[in-house]
Amino acid sequence: MSQAPTHLGSAxxxxxxxxxxxxxxxxxxxLMVELDITIVNVALPTIQRELGFSESDLQWVVNxxxxxxxxxxxxxxRAADLFGRKPMFMAxxxxxxxxxxISAVAPSAxxxxxxxALQGLGGAALAPTGLSLLTTTFTEPRERTRALGVWTFILxxxxxxxxxxxxxxxxxxxxxxxxxxxxxxVVLLLIAAPRLLPRSAEAAGHGFDVAGALLSTAGxxxxxxxxxxxxxxxxxxxxxxxxLVAGAGVLASLGVVERHVQSPLxxxxxxxxxxxxxxTNISYCASCxxxxxxxHFGWGNCAGHSSVPMxxxxxxxxxFSMSS
Length: 324
What we know:
Layout: H1 4-38, H2 44-51, H3 55-58, H4 60-83, H5 85-104, H6 109-137, H7 141-172, H8 177-180, H9 182-196, H10 210-228, H11 230-233, H12 238-258, H13 274-293, H14 311-323
Helix pairs in contact: 1-6, 1-7, 1-9, 4-5, 4-6, 4-10, 5-6, 5-9, 7-14, 10-12
């Protein structure tokens, strides 16, 4: 009888260790996804020279990633609720790894854009499922807050890490290594994920909001596609205006549809929570400022110097994330 408390304490300690290993696993996956948004930017001039991209087509090295990521993130989140977070998370890792491999060996422009699109699709699966895994793994409020603080700390530092690594790798090795470095990380994640991630139950509702899935994918895709082509078409172009209006109309239709379906993709009632609305707006503003800072600062054509203007973000953003 005296052994029972010891065994119970050991089991609790083992469970705690496993939870923090899940945090490491999910944070590493998120770091990989976030890095590939910024790490490519400083290598774009080199990629353009080696693969023969035109000025108008070069943007799709970045936009293909963002288009697939933004278009499918909501759909992937709902699919994870229905089919399980663990399999969706692992599928996202595999697709991201495939996209990284294709991008690394791309002999011309088209395969690189395809690889980047696959990376964006994999990232769309990883983003909502990874965060959901953290919130379901850390159920005790205080421990969950600490875990999310660590996770946020890692994400906020990913911008400067990506710019610094992208510049250093491009200068010292080759732009292809900014994709090759993902491969060992993907292999490690695929080995560890089945052993560490908890088995997740399906959502209580088994309905799938087909209309919401289509609208939530089409709306952001139309907007991103229109904005991505503004440098080539201009703001006054008929194509730009039509796509922007169509994208806004699709998103407005999504709001109407989600109010009337039994199992909505987006539960609009959540935006009545003041903390959610304020937090979303703050995150949006921070993301806008972060993305604007990810532009390539061409200091003497040296990719390694492009991270210098982002140094303040690298120092300040993690501090705010840990204190929040």
